[in-house]
Structures are given as C-alpha cells and as structure tokens.
Amino acid sequence: MAAEARRGPRRGEDTRAAILEAARGEFARAGYAGTSLRAVARAAGVDPALVHHYFEGKDDLFAQSVVLVSLPGPPASLAAQVMEGPREEVGLRAVRTFLGVWEARRSSFEALLRSIVTSEEVARAVREFLTQEIFGRVVSGLEPGLEEDERDLRAGLAATAATGLAMGRYVVRLPGVADADPETLVRRVGPVLQGYLLPR
Amino acid sequence: MAAEARRGPRRGEDTRAAILEAARGEFARAGYAGTSLRAVARAAGVDPALVHHYFEGKDDLFAQSVVLVSLPGPPASLAAQVMEGPREEVGLRAVRTFLGVWEARRSSFEALLRSIVTSEEVARAVREFLTQEIFGRVVSGLEPGLEEDERDLRAGLAATAATGLAMGRYVVRLPGVADADPETLVRRVGPVLQGYLLPR
C-alpha cells in the first residue's frame, strides 16, 4: 500500500476514481463517440498513459464509469437479488429491482440509453452486459439444463421488456408509462418478465 | 390540375415527393438535429419557401418522410389490421403486423430508432404516433368506454413491448432475439401484447 502511494502524486485508487469521475462527465457531455481517452485524462488531471494503465480501452472505461455506476452493486448481486425468492415471482422481483435501480439513477441511466443507439461499441457492451451478466445468469440459475438457443431467447426477450420499459419511461416518456407509480408497473410488467424467463 | 402545373416548374405532387425524398436522404445522413429545411430544399432543387409551403416544420417533415414511410400505409389502416379478427388474438396480430413492417424496412426503421433518443422532437413525434395513431386507436377500438388513464397505460405498455423488441432485434442485436425467426417472436411476444392491450 505504502509502496503504491509512492508511485505517483495520487494513490492508485484515487487516480482510478478520478479517471472514472472525469469519464462520466465527458461521456455525459460529448457522448460515447465524441469522448477521447486523452480528453478524459486531461479532465482528470492525469497522464494519458495512466488511463491506459487502469482501463483496457474506451469501451472498458465506459462500462466501468457509466454502465456499472448505474447499478447499486456488482451485476452478479443484482442477478442474485432477482433470483432469490419464489420462482413464480421472479418476474415481479425483476421489475421491482430494475425500477428501484433506475428511479434512483435516472440521469446517468438516460445517458446510457441514449448512448446505446449512437454507438455500436456501447450497444455491444450493453448487449453483453444484459445477456450475460444479468438475464443470462438469471435464466441459467432458474433452469441450469436449458439449451443455449432457448436460454438466449429467454434472456433476450426479458432484456427487450426491460429496455422497452426503460425507453418508454425515461426517453420517449410515453403517457401512462412515464407517470405511472412504480408498483403499477411492477404489477403489469412483472407477469411479462415471468413469462419470458420461465414460460409455462 | 392543369392550373396547378402552371404554377411552377413541377406539379405540386412531384415537388412534394422530391422534398420528401431529399429529406429522407438528409435525415439518414445528418440525423434529425443536423438537418436543416434549407439543406433539404437545396437537395431537392426547390426554393426553401416551398418546403414551408408543403410542411409545417422540421418535425412534420420528419414524420412525413421517415416515420410514415416506414409504414406500408396510413397508421389508421395499420391499427385496423391489428384489430380485425378475434379479440383473443389481437396480440399475435400486432406482433405479426409490426414484424412484417419492420423486416421489410429494416434500415429506415433503424434510422428512426436511432433518432428517437438523440432528439426530443423526434421522441415527441414518435410518442404521439405510437400512443395516438397506433396503440391508442387499438385500445380505444377494443374497449371504447375505458378511462383515459387506463387507456394510456395499456397503449403505453404495448408500445414499450413493441419498441423494446425492435431495439433488441435491430439496434442492440441481442442474441436469440436478433436471429429468431419472426414466427417464434410472434408466439412469444404475442401473449405479452395481448396482456397489455386486453388484461384479463
């Protein structure tokens, strides 16, 4: 620890945190395509080489600063939260969990949704995140023996319901959906997630 | 008709069609925010005043050139197609109808999806289109006496399922959803639309 601190003007964790904070600001302002690692380094007051030291590239930096920060914890714990409880209520828990996360992080979440469609790299990152880290995990957890095609289809359809709801509530702002109280959405959309994740 | 033709170098319908075609090209290339009515006029080879003569503004031009062109006919006929048949199959018909439209117009439809999140004006146009012209019409047609809040909620949720499916298949390209054959999606997503439009 002490050795780490002596390497530069900041401790490693501080540097990493400063880069993440600067990246969030740059991505929010200039979008994914318009953000360079050099600009992030400048905003963070660090050498560009340090950005490359801590992050594998722009997509990694985006995932760490925007995608993961819009979550309350690691993706695995989110998936665990959805799975924990009666199987026949997994859909309700999923919607309640997501809405809880989104409502508390509206602005960074909206930035993420906007970035999905403007950058193929972000779309890929979100795709992998949704299908592997969240819904793929949930589906595999619920039915371990499922064939890959069927697992992908279930996880993917659940992801369409979740992203459609998020788009409708935060970006397109559909009347009825944008102003519904969260529990109304849990009651209406929960059965949909249930049917996608565990069709009867 | 003959009098119309004498007013300018082109007949009215030809001028309008030329403006629409130029607008599609400009919106596809520069996006909604980056397209000016002046640039559209230039691309169409007409006086900018003519663009204002035929269209109320940029949002109207976008609706006419991109939103409506991604449909096979007027929105009312699309809504009618969804409603016509047994009530308990309205969800299946909705998904089958939309997929039919989307698959045949993938690229302009993708451009539309991308524009929704980058422009508040486009989001508003799409919101009004989805809730009033399509799903509002279907819900009102199925249950005329419904209270406004409930009608908006049903129409809005149906719109989240449809846009989520479109995003997942054409923009995010979720495995399982992007490569599923259309009838598989009709079977899985149909009951969801059914439950949103006509909850039991």
From TrEMBL, chains A, B:
What InterPro entries does the record point to?
Homeodomain-like_sf (IPR009057), HTH-type_TetR-like_transc_reg (IPR050109), HTH_TetR (IPR001647), Tet_transcr_reg_TetR-rel_C_sf (IPR036271), TetR_C_16 (IPR041678)
Q: What is the superkingdom listed in this entry's lineage?
A: Bacteria
Instruction: Cite the Pfam families for this sequence.
Output: TetR_C_16, TetR_N
From the UniProt annotation, which stretches of this protein bind DNA? Answer: 36-55
Question: One MF term in GO for this entry?
Answer: transcription cis-regulatory region binding
What residues form the membrane-spanning segments? Answer: none
Ordered alphabetically, the record's keywords are: DNA-binding
The major lineage groups are: Bacteria, Bacillati, Actinomycetota, Actinomycetes, Micrococcales
For the HTH tetR-type domain, which residue ranges apply? 13-73
The identity of this protein, by name, is: HTH tetR-type domain-containing protein
